[in-house]
Amino acid sequence: MLLSKDPLLRNGHLLAVSSLASAGLGAVFWVLATRWYDDEIVGVSYSVLSMMLLLAGVGQLNLNDFLVRFVPSAGHHTRRLILTCYAVSAGVSAVAAFGFLLLVPMVAPELDFLLTPVIGACFVATTAGYAVFVMQDGALTAVRRPGWVVAENLLFACVKIGLLGLGAVLALRSGILSSWAGALAVSLLVTNFVLLRRAVPQHVRGSTVAERPKGVLGYASADYFGSLFRMAAYTLVPLIVLDQLGAEQSAYFSLAWIVGYVLYLVARNLGSSLVVEAARSPGRLVEHALKVLRHTTLLLGSAVLLVVALAPQILSLFGAEYAEHGTTLLRLLALSSLPNILVSIAIDSSRARRRLRWAVGLQVAMCVLVLGLTRLLLPVMGITGAGVAWLATMCLLAAPLLIWRTRWLTAVPGRSS
């Protein structure tokens, strides 16, 4: 993926590189964990970390996207805006983590080791810290430092792998969890030093726009509400597959989904760059959106052709049975990423214009259609039904967006660059 001189495309490319690198090193981390630690430790640790990520994801209130939208035009309020979002998301995530600990005896008794004071406090602190970690990406993206998004994620991944090995050498049962906590602390310290001491002051000095903060709480609430439905669409389908088809079919689905979801991330990363540039130059929103649409379609078109052609070989890396059961599913998921480009750009354009009706409506419709069609098709088609559900949903959403594009693809009234 060559880097363009255009900030809109260059920043989007770097964000996509960050996502790909994080996914690749994350896979390496878990491969090493399964070799260095007992299966029981890996299973319990994965459950704890999954819950931590879920709580942090809910607790950060989608303020990551909020920062992407409002920091570019915050002017001298930039530092205060970032720190306020940090505090709010960390506080809410900590409360959510503490609430989960209270429910552990009832909902997850196998995790009762979290109830000891020291481990429980670490769980709460790490959950709050991860919420801030997620928002660092948004803040760095907003101040046009996507290179540091790549750097911080590489730093986190590499330190995490190093600490994982140290924990294995010392035979620590908490080695997997400790590696996450340690790497998180290092990343937060280094990244926020760069962000708050260097990137933010430079951003403030170079600011040419200053947007009125009127209505930001309403924006944040509506954006968070919509994001919950998108999150539900992404996270609940694997649970539906597990419930209806069992653990084995769920495994086949999950690995195909992990590969296919990478294609969705490309559109999301370029969309974040679109929001940043549109916030800086509102009058160029339509121009930027069309450029992102053309570029992402060309970029993903080539990637989708490769995935469709090489789907059996890709899945066979995990085992022959994954290729046998998941090839058609992966091909359908890859194809669904193409109409998703239009859906993603419509959502991000809505965010840039601060008119969230389209964004919320699309995410609600996505959730209802994906979950409904998945439940309907799984008993008939097996895990392939989930792929059909995603492809059908994206086509059903993209078609009216294409027909009535002038309703959502419009410049911000009364504003110019």
UniProtKB/TrEMBL annotation:
Chief location bin: membrane
Protein name: Lipopolysaccharide biosynthesis protein
Topological type in the membrane: Multi-pass membrane protein
Localization (cell): Cell membrane
Annotated keywords: Cell membrane, Membrane, Transmembrane, Transmembrane helix
Source domain of life: Bacteria
Phylogenetic placement of the source organism: Bacteria, Bacillati, Actinomycetota, Actinomycetes, Kitasatosporales
Keyword Membrane found: yes
